[in-house]
TrEMBL record, chain A:
Keywords: Cytoplasm, Exosome, Nucleus, Phosphoprotein, RNA-binding, rRNA processing. Residues 192-238 form the K Homology domain. GO terms for biological process: CUT catabolic process; exonucleolytic trimming to generate mature 3'-end of 5.8S rRNA from tricistronic rRNA transcript (SSU-rRNA, 5.8S rRNA, LSU-rRNA); nuclear mRNA surveillance; nuclear polyadenylation-dependent rRNA catabolic process; poly(A)-dependent snoRNA 3'-end processing; TRAMP-dependent tRNA surveillance pathway; U4 snRNA 3'-end processing. Pfam families: ECR1_N, KH_6, S1_RRP4. It comes from Kwoniella pini CBS 10737. One of its GO terms (molecular function) is RNA binding. This is Exosome complex component RRP4. InterPro entries: Exosome_cplx_N_dom (IPR025721), Exosome_RNA_bind1/RRP40/RRP4 (IPR026699), KH_dom_type_1 (IPR004088), KH_dom_type_1_sf (IPR036612), NA-bd_OB-fold (IPR012340), S1_RRP4 (IPR048565). Residues 98-169 form the RRP4 S1 domain. Residues 238-265 are annotated as: Disordered. It comes from the Eukaryota. Coiled coil: none annotated. CDD domains: KH-I_Rrp4_eukar, S1_Rrp4.
Automatic annotation (TrEMBL), chain B:
Pfam families: RNase_PH (PF01138), RNase_PH_C (PF03725). One of its GO terms (biological process) is poly(A)-dependent snoRNA 3'-end processing. Keywords: Cytoplasm, Exosome. This is Ribosomal RNA-processing protein 41.
UniProtKB/TrEMBL annotation, chain C:
InterPro entries: ExoRNase_PH_dom1, ExoRNase_PH_dom2, ExoRNase_PH_dom2_sf, Exosome_comp_Rrp42_subfam, PNPase/RNase_PH_dom_sf, Ribosomal_Su5_D2-typ_SF, Rrp45. The keyword Nucleotide-binding does not apply. This is Exosome complex component RRP45. Residues 32-164, 191-255 form the Exoribonuclease phosphorolytic domain. CDD domains: RNase_PH_RRP45. GO terms for biological process: exonucleolytic trimming to generate mature 3'-end of 5.8S rRNA from tricistronic rRNA transcript (SSU-rRNA, 5.8S rRNA, LSU-rRNA); nuclear mRNA surveillance; nuclear polyadenylation-dependent rRNA catabolic process; rRNA catabolic process; TRAMP-dependent tRNA surveillance pathway; U1 snRNA 3'-end processing; U4 snRNA 3'-end processing; U5 snRNA 3'-end processing. Belongs to the RNase PH family. GO terms for molecular function: mRNA 3'-UTR AU-rich region binding. Pfam families: RNase_PH, RNase_PH_C. Keywords: Cytoplasm, Exosome, Nucleus, RNA-binding, rRNA processing. The keyword Nucleus applies.
Amino acid sequence: MFSVKTILPTSTQSFSDDILSTHRRHQAELDAMDLDEDEFGAGPSKRNIVTPGEVITSSKEYMRGHGTYVEDVNVVSSVTGTIERVNKLISVKAIRSKYVPEVGDLVIGRIVEVGPQRWRVEANGRQDAVLMLSSVNLPGGVQRRKIESDALKMREFLAEGDLLVAEVQAFFGDGAMSLHTRSLKYGKLRNGQLLSVPPQLIRRLKSHFHHIPPPCGPTGVDVILGLNGYVWVSNGTSQEKREGGEGFDSEGVYSDKNDDIPPEGRQATSTITNLIKILADEGIPLTDTLIEESFNWINQNQLPLGSIAHNDAERMLAEIVGIDITA
Amino acid sequence: MSSSRIEILNDGGLRHDARRPYELRSTSFQLNTHPTAEGSSTVTQGLTTVQVSIFGPREPRQRSQASHDKAIINVEVGVVPWAQGGGGIKRVRGDKRLQEIGASIRQTFEPVIMTHLYPRSEITINVQVLSADGGILPTSINATTLALISSGISILDYITSISIGLYLKQPLLDLSFLEEQDLPNLIISCLTNSNKITLAQMETRLHIDRFEEMLNLGLEACKVLKIEMELIVKEQTEKIVERMNVKSIISSNASGMNIDE
Amino acid sequence: MVREVDPPSIQKDFLLAALAEGKRLDGRIPLEQRKIEFIFGDELGNVECRIGKTAVLAQVSASIVKPRDDRPYEGFLMINSEIGPMASSIYENGRSSDSEVLITRLLEKSIRRTEAIDREALCILAGEKVWQLRLTLHFLSDSGNLLDCASMASMIALKHFRKPDVEVIGDEVIIHSPEERAPVPLAIHHTPLCLTFAYFENLPPILDPTHLESTLCAGTLTVTMNAQREICVLSKAGGTPLSAEDIMGVVRVGVDQVREMVKIMDQALEKDRESRVIEVQ
């Protein structure tokens, strides 16, 4: 009764690979019907992928998890993604989604508002996060008591626009996350640049602070992979300085001034930034080993630092990750 | 009614652009066409192209607007100045027609987006009409569905939309601008699984007996569109899933430490 | 737009419980309209329409203007409608909210685009002089279902209105005052009237929702029909998804309802005509 014309729209040549012929439709219908109850979570097969409105299974036998809803007697997907099953719990993991925070997550955020006893932090979540004055370390030592004058000086510590790295401490009743920076690892960020990547590319790892050692710049490059998709790439510092050991400048924690960074350090930072961008653009999950390997690859091939040419990027992806983006 | 300048349906049963009455225009669906939006899509139906980008759920720009138990949905509709080509109505920002299209899109998607999952936040749907040749609203709705899917926001089902015209006693599907001008014109959008209509709009006089026929025809056309969309979505998803699994090849650190659940 | 305070949830529960038993808070059955009342003003074309406590005043006036170059035989019908804070505190002066845009657009579509008024009959002298009708709507009070009330007020005002008789001698146009010659009624093709239905989840639709009902409902459907069994405008945006049969169901209900409404309107007009002296002795 119907047919869909499959002629290329004249004005949109680039859409060519998205045009479909009608006969493939039947394949999709068959696949949908073949979804067997025994097959959830069975490898990266095509049947694992569902789109909104697709019936996954009966709600009598399974419980619904995230990304699903129950209609009549069926568990139905509400997002596009892969089915995941833990015993009787069926959930669908969306392939793309806004960052969903969990307690203990490491995030990078930006101060958007200084309020009474608290900062509001934009952290790529569905609501702004809150950083209470009581959950930060102030200059003068960990044990220092907060006095009234600190509340008046809040903007001196962190002002609107400042970037910081923090940990998710808890959630408020309305779902907003509460952050804390009560560790010497956390706090204000400087000496580097911010990158934003899709949050699902950053997995929960043992550590999110990575140090790429020289020859990547004179002092190496530090990378902080925030789980909210914000990545901080900065000029490297030594282990001790980072974690409050020898030479840790407790007064400089809230400093707004960048250190003197030699040109080589800046170049290394931007090289790492560009590498992360290339990997993220292709949807490859980021890990410290991957970033380090890609830098080594650049180094071994003696390519110029800084920006990376497109064909070099292609070659790198093919050799390191094993994917072909030319197709 | 008005005298038609074009022949709507010729003796051979073809329309002015050589389509048969029930034939849809060539369609193309593209996902993730906007670099920074959470979700985006570009949909082309014939010579009508619409790009939709979705921002959010995020902190509401006006905090007073926030609702404590659900997300609020904002829709902005814009038409680029060059969209109209030869014939068309000048549409500027803030125009009542555009406002109406925006309200229709918002009301269509409000019951479908699971807003209760995103309390105190806002979802902004930006609709940009890049070229217009009839059926702006149906194409915008189709594009919004795809953009929502690509954003990972929970929705109940695909919503597809189509316009249906009537020439004498012959219903026509997916009207072009010229046909839209001359024919009674019904726009419906529906949830394809349950076959239920979320939006129905008609602006011209029509006898009720014909109306039912057009309604049912539109529902079937919506299903066809859904199948096409689903194909694209699945294809794209497979690609992304494949990339996401690349990690197991190279990283020793990452494997085994995946504690998302 | 000012956000209205949500009604108390206990009121919502009560309303829904009553509806589930097929009862409404004001004692109507689900598909019953509130009482329609027309108050005719002193002038022709000035009518106030009331449905329950919702009131809209419509005023028609006519002036002579030059027609558009591309349509020399057609007169104009302009609809002015702006909902001010008088109707309800949720409306603001000068700024148009979404609901306001929908009301005015739907009115425009149902009256203007369906050609309810024969615009060619408004022509006096082709290319030179045509009548321009101005329909101004004043929204006096919003107690739900402004749209239906406004569409009824508009149509009855247009039917009530009479334009002065004109005489064309060569290029000269003489306008006769109502004292000289009886003014003539407008040529009206059909009477499109809006009917608004409200939906609640898993409940049958109700006709003519009150303010409370429309704030609590899951969606509305407005259908504009005439007595000739024609659908002029149908607008259902959002709300509970409906099947095709559901939609056809309300359309069928609408057919009879509109006939009934047209009858009421005609009776009211007839009654007014008896009390009014229009003809010149």
